[in-house]
């Protein structure tokens, strides 16, 4: 535990909460995209890009603040790493949206929706956890649940990939679908990295 | 060189040695997997998962210790980075095992076994080097040899990929094999990152 | 702003400038490679490997210096990260050269040349910016322009990928081309990471 010379700067918590809120919006749009037809998809992907820009702005505000202030509520490097880790989740999801549109994918296997539901739950839990960084209390239930969800998503991903290859007749269609599925798995790994960072920060502060 | 206020904490060396030991077990299982038929593979992959869990536990013990102690035998960030780098090697190898089972691969080209032999040698050298972190002596022969082995694996990998494409008739089979081969190359790069970290640590301490 | 006990060490700036110079050479060779026939390509790729070794030597000189000196012109971790980020750009470009030769690619789509032209411009801007790290002046025009170029390359990349899939009849040919195109995009992302690091360093020092 470090000595604190000034009151904790609360703005970081607000910015992290805001950033995580844009991720919740993003996972909602991703779920919407899966149910949409090809015509509607473009508009949904555009809304995702807006959410991504808002998330970028929040991440950038964190970094800027970090470079201009001496006193931070917890380790500078951890703040920087947490902002980046949240940003990586947004980027992976944005890539998934973009690929679904770009590849003009016809219909996605049902298990893809199951993976996106796990992502939605991860996003909600993450957004609920961010304000709790202020007191560092009740965070362990969050990271335990994220690890459980990541495990579940990992199993779904392996089943999905096996399914894709078992049913594959068109290699080009397979390449497209596999890339989307792998990027969704990256997003899920990203949520786990965020949770691991939160765990590390909480341990240091305890 | 930094002043040391208390005796060096030896447990880190023990934990790194233990972690590297699980990697030796893992590369052995990977070699076994290549020689096994599809029925035996599942059981070998399950034993790999056990080795991976043991490695995770050792890495987690290092991180936990790091977050709870003030005095570390060398730079905190380097300890953290080294634990992570060793963990990444395990993860890459686990992914290779998993893909071989998941993709129900028939037979793997002979050069794949050559790559795995290089991985086995890297694992042994790494496990032998870990206890030497205590005195920081006789480490240069280790990292020089790892760089040489990584170069050798890189050449094998390029030959393998060229061979896969030259002989490819079935694109779906190619995708499967290429993914396995690329993940094995990642594992090899991982050993090199571990060696580079050890080199950095040794230079700082000298 | 930190107190400075001794004059700034200028050698880091020289080494960064040298390293970026090798990247300029590399992007030039990459452009040459695209215009060459299969016979000439091998010789050009070999010259790229020479440029890569020279870049590695400069990066290694930076790391070595860092591990042996107390006083650095800016944050140690940032120097290390910047050297690594520049090295990653070289590695991505080397991989692109290598794949073009290894895959015996016939002809590359015109948009690939457009991407490489963006990389050449990024390399020139980066090389011009490195000496300006000394005074930290006139750097913002550099990172603003790199972000703009990365955006442009990203759009080109998405068009290229869509084009590859729309025209694809041979899945194996598609896999080869897509890998080259993705690695070029990685190189471009690498330039952006360099610019973001420079921005972070400049903000800290201001």
Automatic annotation (TrEMBL), chains A, B, C:
Signal sequence region: none
InterPro entries tied to this protein: PhoU-like_sf (IPR038078), Put_Phosphate_transp_reg (IPR018445), UPF0111_domain (IPR052912)
Similarity field: Belongs to the UPF0111 family.
Protein's name according to its UniProt entry: DUF47 family protein
Pfam families per UniProt: PhoU_div
């Amino acid at each position: 535990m470090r000595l604190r010379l000034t009151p904790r700067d609360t703005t970081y918590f607000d910015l992290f909460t805001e950033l995580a809120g844009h991720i919740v919006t993003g996972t909602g749009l991703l779920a919407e995209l899966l149910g949409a037809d090809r015509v509607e998809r473009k508009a949904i992907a555009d809304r995702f890009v807006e959410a991504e820009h808002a998330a970028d702005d929040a991440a950038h505000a964190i970094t800027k603040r970090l470079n201009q202030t001496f006193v931070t509520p917890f380790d500078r490097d951890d703040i920087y790493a947490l902002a980046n880790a949240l940003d990586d989740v947004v980027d992976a999801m944005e890539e998934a949206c973009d690929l679904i549109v770009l590849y003009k994918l016809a219909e996605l296997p049902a298990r893809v929706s199951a993976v996106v539901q796990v992502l939605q739950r991860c996003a909600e839990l993450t957004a609920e956890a961010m304000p709790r960084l202020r007191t560092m209390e009740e965070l362990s239930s969050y990271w335990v649940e994220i690890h459980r969800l990541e495990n579940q998503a990992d199993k779904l991903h392996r089943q999905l990939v096996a399914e894709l290859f078992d049913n594959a007749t068109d290699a080009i269609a397979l390449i497209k679908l596999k890339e989307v599925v792998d990027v969704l798995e990256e997003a899920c790994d990203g949520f786990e990295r965020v949770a691991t960072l939160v765990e590390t920060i909480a341990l240091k502060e305890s």
